[in-house]
Amino acid sequence: MTALNSGSKTSRFPTLPWGVAPPAPPRKPYSPERVLEDIPGLNYALHLFLSSQMVESEQYCEECDPKSEHLYFATGYGLIQCFKGLMSFEDEDLLAGLNHVKNGNAVASQHRKRVASLPTRLAGLVLGSLNTSGVGWIKSMTPVERHAELVYAESLFEKALLGIVYSGDWLAFIKEALNLRTTINIYRQLGQFLEVADAEAQARGDGPEDASIDAHFRSGVCLGVGMSNVILSLMPSKVLTVIELFGYKGDRHAGLAYLMKPGGWSKDAPEPSVGIKEEGIRRPICDMALLLFHLVFSSFTYDGVDISMAQKILDYHQKQYPNGVFFLFGQGRLSICRGQPAQAIEYYRRAVAVQDQYKNMHHISHWEIAVANFSLWDVAASLTNWRALAKDATWSKATYTYGVAVCLLELGDEKQKEEADKAMNQVPNLRQRIAGKSIPIEKFVARKARKFHEQKGRLALAALEFSYLFLCIQHAPRSVILAHILPQTNALLAELQGYYGKPAAYDGCFWDDWCLAQFLRGVSLRYIAYPDADTVVDPEEKLGMSQADAERDSVLAFEEIFKDGDEITLDHYLNYYAHFEYGRLMACKGDKTSAREHLELVMSGKSLEGPGVHRKGKYSMENALHVRTHAALEALDRKDRL
Prior knowledge:
By secondary structure, the chain is mainly α.
């Protein structure tokens, strides 16, 4: 077999399972007028990538565009390098990705329609016919220039994302935030252009869409407009208030509708109306964005989440990419959302087995398996994956090392406790910063590591508390909660009961441990009484505890925190999280008034740590709680199940 070259009709690259062979190589020399001829080649490279043939995809792009001058190949290759940088989080990979994305952005700039001179633009404010901005400006472009405008926005977004992660300071963050603003503005203009063009086509009687606009361009505009709306809609309320002052507002349902368009998805049909031969080049990325929303963002929001839609998208793509690592990740997340952690682990193991080209992608599987094993309360298995992450992964060494430490504490022989002590010593020094700011989960584990040493090697329910942060109790089978998780909290409460009237005799922060045990007990009982809305419950399951008993005991556990939480010394976050979880429990019971009262307390900004506490500063994981509480209040208004 011969390598791809200008004189060859064949290549060493494989024919894809549904019969798509590598397209003919680009004609030489490169001409900007022939930009759109490269789309089939990049589309083939994308399908290679999604089939877990990442290296072949890179090589194909390099051989088609050795000088990195083609609009679509240069930016497509930049996207791959951006992905690699974010997968590893290594400075070297981030910088390489940033350089490739900058090159792609520069190539896109060269293909864009030249901006009118300042006098012409000023005149355009008076004479709209000059078409110096808005829909008129987009209309005046050639198809190639419109594609270049779209690709410029995409590469600018990638550049901003990598720049924020790589820079580590606020100045660079502000600069890249301005680039994000430019990206959103371009997408808005392109979206308005599509709406106007389609409306004019309908008025002419030419059908629902303007047939002169190709599916590849449409899919890119849908991706950009859809993701802009969804991301803005997910912003914390405080940030959103500031963003809205500049005229930006995210309409989540409009965003999701845009993302569904390129595939022709609908809630009523089991299959998409757009097949692989008719789809635009960015359709698979739109589908992956939908999966990201329904299966990952659903951890902290409710509005618009549709697990059945995620299932349809996964079923479709698993047929196209049976060894596609991204869709195996999706199947794993779907299983987690349905309360089936054992099934999720099998999908993640397959994701490790199907590709070894990008080793950093294995880290996603190790993370998810570690978390899923917490939901099964298989701490030894979870430890294996935390060790693998701590050894090789670079996203958050502090978190991985803390995961190792708490598993060792839970397993508990003397040798393991000594290793846990060493790991806890490392945690504070492994923290990273993004845009000059600490990562919230790393701040949390660093505080816990310090507490561990202040208490001379004691940290109550450390593994269970850590697992709560990743929603492991929420996704645990009820039989596991009853057999393995509740006994943990009950055992600690039984030990603490003897010190209740004399906390000074206790070797540790008595009230912190007391309230933590009550909190984790309350959460566990809540999910026995009211499983998560998406959990698949076995109707034949026999638990040995009635819903009424679990509900009653959960309420009592939270009420203990409200009574004694003023005495907490260090873990003040428990006061706030207790009101959040109690509010959700009340919503499940149908007491919407009480639910709203407790959820609004969390959002009020008031101190919930007792009348005598005048502590200044934030509590652990505050922003995450505000996002989840805001979503819970919205769900309460819509009468969604929490």
